[in-house]
Design a protein that fits this description.
Length: 315
């Protein structure tokens, strides 16, 4: 871990290079209606300049991808994890039948940065950027797009700039005072804020309720793929496992798939973990059997004692 970058991301401003993001442009007159029916989010009501977080589900209700969707004049711009780009393109293409919808893979056209930390807004405004006010919304800054969304879950913005200008952007942000932060260091702060990541903490094996991501579901939006499963789980009121955050009393972060124990019973497994210098302990995302998820639950990870973390940033 780079402590200078860690401290900058928590207390000042850092820039995170987000390589390989899956960037899909959805064009055509039916694009809003089409994506509205493909995701858990209320896409059809998005005004130009607005954005929303969305989940793409299978017909079994499993989470195929998580994405930030931005409503632009000429398209809907979809930003998803590197590992779900091809899957999402294939998934969307399969459902285009008589729709006036065209998909373009723009992943290679942009470089993507997270400019994050308490001083991120001041730094970007000092460089001349006009910033969006609403969460997930965006503004245009020259040839770049600036969205109000962060990788870590803390204050910050995501910049989409022309790929050819990558080095120029990194130099400009660095010269303005943003400390360059590697992804593994950023992940420690992400766990402090409690931001889970698709493909790391939850996947296409999980239901929305298991990942505890019902905030990504727009209520009363009409039919969409996977809705029947969402409503069935909601009406029954339970799932067998839950993604939770655990504070482990150890400086050695456990590896993925490490068992999480309650007494002598295996209650679940680690999905991701990182040591938090601010806490002097490790933070863990773990998928735990629901019967063990209680406010006073005591866990053990690699012989270290653990307990459920509260909401919000820790440390």
């Amino acid at each position: 871990m780079n402590l200078d970058a860690y401290n900058a991301l928590r207390d000042e401003c850092a820039v995170i290079e987000l390589e390989g993001r899956g960037l899909i442009s959805v064009k055509g007159d039916d694009r809003a209606r089409f994506l509205h029916a493909m995701t858990t989010a209320g896409i059809q009501g998005l005004a130009e300049g607005a954005g929303i977080l969305a989940l793409f589900l299978s017909d079994k209700g499993r989470i195929l991808a998580e994405a930030l969707v931005l409503s632009r004049d000429e398209d809907l711009f979809v930003d998803t994890e590197p590992g779900t780009r091809e899957l999402l393109l294939e998934h969307l293409d399969r459902f285009i039948i008589m729709d006036d919808v065209e998909l373009e893979d723009d992943s290679a056209a942009y470089c993507v940065f997270g400019v994050e930390g308490p001083r991120a807004a001041a730094l970007l405004e000092g460089l001349g950027a006009g910033l969006p006010e609403q969460d997930h919304a965006y503004t245009v800054w020259g040839e770049a797009i600036v969205a109000k969304y962060s990788y870590s879950g803390g204050p910050g913005y995501r910049i989409y700039a022309p790929a050819a200008a990558k080095d120029e952007w990194l130099a400009k942000l660095s010269a303005a005072g943003a400390v360059i932060c590697d992804l593994s260091t950023a992940d420690a702060v992400r766990l402090e804020y409690g931001r889970p990541r698709h493909g790391v903490d939850f996947s296409d094996q999980n239901l929305v309720h298991e990942a505890q991501l019902m905030s990504r579901v727009t209520p009363n939006k009409g039919c969409y793929i996977g809705q029947e499963i969402i409503e069935r789980v909601r009406s029954r009121g339970n799932v067998n496992k839950l993604l939770v955050r655990v504070v482990a009393e150890t400086a050695e972060a456990p590896l993925p798939n490490t068992p999480v124990m309650v007494d002598e019973k295996e209650a679940g497994a680690v999905k991701s973990a990182a040591f938090s210098p601010a806490l002097g302990k490790s933070l863990v995302f773990a998928m735990i059997r629901a019967e063990f998820v209680k406010p006073d639950a005591g866990f053990r990870v690699n012989e270290a004692e653990g307990s459920l973390a509260g909401a919000g940033r820790l440390g």
